[in-house]
Amino acid sequence: KDLSDHFEIMTAELRNLYNDLEKKVQLRTQDLARAKDILETQRLQLEEANRRLREDNQYKSDFLAIVSHELRTPLTSIIAFAEVLERGKNSKDEKEQKVIQEIKGNSMVLLGMINNILDMARIEAGRKELVLEPIDLVDVINAVESVVKPLVDKKGINFSTQVQHDVPLIEGDRDSIRSIVENLISNAIKFTPKGGVINVRVVYNSQKKEVLISVQDNGIGIQKKDQPYIFEKFVQSDTSIQRQFGGSGLGLALTKELAELHEGWIKVYSEYGKGSTFTVGLPAIEEGDLLQMEF
Predict the structure, then answer these.
(1) Residue 121: exposed, middle, or buried by beta-carbon count in 10 A (0-12, 13-18, 19+)?
(2) In 10 A of CB 266, how many CB atoms?
(3) 187-244 pLDDT, tens digit each
């Protein structure tokens, strides 16, 4: 009888343990179900937030593209009229001619900023299409030099360009490559004092099959702590510099985006108070590829 009683006690204890375990499993299942519902709700909220963010970004890109396009048309007309007036310089005194050059120079700066905004809006919207063709960088450097010459002359900057004889062609979008070079030089002009020096060099790295475009200046330079952020959109090293030198803060960010679209890169070496050197690397066209393209 003692054995039977003991067995019944053990059976009752096991039954209680089993029932308790079932209750715990049931509670845990309910907790998991609630957690799953919460996670699903949060997932749906996150999806909705991402959808709204995509819409906001799209609205922003569309707005920037429309505004930039609408501003560019009348600004181009202003530049054209300024050039017409400039050609008639023999009939104007020195003061009038200087005013015309100021109109043209400032209009060109503003047009460059508008083009940067438009290009960045296209890239962010995924609508920036590259029209690839063989490009001789001598032509690009010469074209940009003619555009920046008034700004260089105005500040009395010692400006020089050098393209080494062994630099091959690159495959790229002509307008984008020109924008890269123009942004780098314009950035150097902006931060180089009157009477400063800017050197533009294009060399070929035969080991890496890359063409390197370097723009060196003896301007204000960039502090070490600021260098990791200078390629971000709307960023300049500090607000006092932005107030002093102006600009949209898009030039370097756009240059980086355009270089990477061409499977290239951009780097900076700078000493604060001594100047900066920005270098862009772009893939070169090898002879076999060029012959195939021509064929």
Answers:
(1) buried
(2) 20
(3) 999 999 999 999 999 999 999 999 999 999 999 999 999 888 888 876 554 444 544 5
Residue type, 250: L
The one-letter amino acid code at 112 reads: G
Q: Find, among 170, 178, 189, 196, the residue nearest to 264 by Cα.
A: 170
What 3-state DSSP class applies to 160? strand
**What DSSP string describes 67-82?**
HHHHHHHHHHHHHHHH
Closest by Cα among 169, 153, 158, 183 to 258: 183
pTM (predicted TM-score):
0.66
Strand partners, 217: 198, 276
Residues 178-182: contacts with CB within 8 Å, 24+ apart? 178/140, 178/143, 178/144, 179/115, 179/116, 179/119, 179/254, 179/255, 179/258, 180/213, 180/255, 180/258, 180/259, 180/280, 181/140, 181/141, 181/144, 181/213, 181/215, 182/112, 182/144, 182/147, 182/148
